[in-house]
Design a protein that fits this description.
Strand content: 15-25%
CATH topology of the largest domain: Aldehyde Dehydrogenase, Chain A, domain 1
Shape: globular
Helix content: 25-40%
Strand order of the largest sheet: 15-16-17-14-13-18-19
Number of helices: 14
Distance between the termini: 79 Å
CATH class of the largest domain: Alpha Beta
Radius of gyration: 24 Å
CATH architecture of the largest domain: 3-Layer(aba) Sandwich
Number of domains: 2
CATH superfamily of the largest domain: Aldehyde Dehydrogenase, Chain A, domain 1
């Protein structure tokens, strides 16, 4: 049996009311461990401890906070190989991606360590005589962080790091599918110079622990990444307490390939953007909108490239696509393959479960042809290694198709035409736009977020994070008159 791993509540590692198994999706015989499920009483204990710890943490000097975040970030980067291997083992992404994710998580912490020293206020003269105005940001209080399984360390880090940097307490509920990465990050945080209770890890089912967390009046803000239905449910629960929310939800990102674009580049971008991380990225390009002038050449090379991608154990050398994260996810993916066929799309390659040396949730990357933007496979987020090609006859039709969605996270264009690229940047109705780059892949020092059903609330990352993790106070001071 695997080793039991506990929750971290109010400064102590504690057992839960039960445990869940965590198995390697590349090798189902590999039991990573048993992970505690927090009780409602433990959640309340964490919330109560957070309230008092936050007040103490807010009083820490800037350099003391900076040292804490820098220590976390440096350790993550130093242990990227070790923790990246653990991440890939439990989530299924290829080892290089797992290591890269942990290293990037460390960079989030070191970036916000520096931000601890850049929290500058504003001042102004009042419209009234002899009165000065001071405007500054203060911590919002206790932040509930609910993070997904597809980037179990990075997404959590880009929420936790600014929450701490701006003086808040954190209650973290990670996805139950990837608890090992959550425990590893928590173990690093637990050893830092922070008040007991400032940071708590509460693992458990979303319908139980997660629901109680978002309904709690002791929570001042909720940052969530996940599905649209869950995000809307969180918003509904949060409004009862007027709790501030930041929601990153679904997407249906498009890569537009124009007739003046570099076809080889477009294929490379499409393969990486659509199938990287087994398609389990919110920024994945699952709609490939291709100009008729290059459609056939693009499709031929895309299919050849997809069929050549190595699907194997996440830790095996040369693996380009690991398994999907769970049996449930695999079944949902295969259901979308059947749906696409029933809608009249042609499955040109892949989209099937395959066996490897170890039993796992392996699936080949699939390409749909002869699709239109009204098909459900082009309307709904599949979160699978599946991409659908939509043929268009003009740039105008391409940009209209890109924008014909309820989502609006990322969109990309492949073109050599500066005028087209500029028009696309200004008119694609998404929060992120890329030109001759994949739709997946963002920097940590600039804002990230979308429009429509993709995002709700202030942006994440960079200095824009302060809009969510702080509240503004305006003070008026009577200066008096000199003697």
């Amino acid at each position: 049996m695997g080793q039991s791993q506990h929750n971290f509540i109010a400064g102590q590692w504690v057992a839960g009311t039960g445990e869940v198994e965590n198995r390697n999706p590349s090798d189902l015989s590999d039991l990573i461990g048993l992970y505690a499920q927090a009780s409602s009483d433990q959640l309340e204990q964490a919330l109560d401890a957070a309230t008092s710890a936050q007040k103490e943490w807010a009083g820490y000097g800037m350099e003391r906070k900076q040292a804490v975040l820098m220590s976390i970030g440096n350790e993550l980067m130093a242990r990227a190989e070790e923790l990246g291997t653990l991440l890939s083992r439990e989530e299924g992404k290829p080892l290089a991606e797992g290591k890269g994710e942990v290293f990037r998580a460390g960079q989030f912490f070191t970036y916000y360590a520096a931000e601890c020293l850049r929290q500058l206020g504003e001042n102004a003269d009042s419209v009234r005589p002899n009165i000065e105005v001071d405007v500054r940001r203060e911590p919002i209080g206790t932040v509930a962080i609910i993070s997904p399984w597809n980037f179990p360390t990075a997404t959590a880090s880009w929420k936790i790091a600014p929450a701490l940097a701006y003086g808040n307490a954190v209650i973290w509920k990670p996805a139950n599918v990837t608890p090992a990465s959550a425990v590893a990050l928590t173990e690093i945080i637990s050893r830092q110079d922070i008040p007991a209770g400032l940071f708590s890890l509460v693992m458990g089912a979303g319908r139980d622990v997660g629901q109680r967390l978002v309904e709690s009046p002791k929570v001042n803000a909720i940052s969530f990444t996940g599905s649209v239905p869950v995000g809307k449910g969180i918003a509904t629960a949060a409004v009862q307490n007027l709790t501030k929310v930041q929601l990153e939800m679904g997407s249906k990102n498009a890569l537009a390939v124009m007739d003046d674009g570099d076809v080889d580049l477009a294929v490379t971008l499409a393969l990486g953007g659509a199938f990287g991380g087994s398609g389990q990225k919110c920024t994945a390009s699952s709609r490939l909108i291709v100009h008729a002038g290059v459609h056939d050449a693009f499709v031929e090379k895309l299919i050849k490239g997809a069929e050549a991608m190595k699907v194997d154990h996440a830790l095996a050398g040369g693996t380009q696509i690991g398994p999907v994260v769970s049996e449930q996810q695999l079944n949902e993916n295969l259901a979308y393959v059947d749906l696409g066929k029933s809608e009249g799309a042609e499955l040109a390659c892949g989209g099937a479960r395959v066996e490897r040396a170890t039993e796992g949730y392996y699936m080949t990357p699939g390409v749909f042809l002869n699709t239109n933007n009204n098909m459900r496979i082009n309307r709904e987020e599949m979160f699978a290694p599946l991409a659908a090609v939509i043929k268009v006859d003009s740039y105008d039709e391409a940009i209209a198709t890109v924008n014909d969605t309820n989502f609006g996270l990322t969109a990309g264009i492949v073109t050599q035409n500066l005028a087209r690229a500029t028009h696309f940047r200004r008119n694609a109705r998404t929060g992120v736009v890329t030109v001759n780059l994949p739709t997946a892949g963002t920097d940590y020092h600039v804002p990230f977020g979308g429009r429509g059903d993709s995002s709700y609330g202030p942006r994440e990352q960079g200095t824009y994070a302060k809009e969510f993790y702080t509240t503004v106070k305006t003070a008026y001071i009577a200066a008096g008159t000199p003697a």
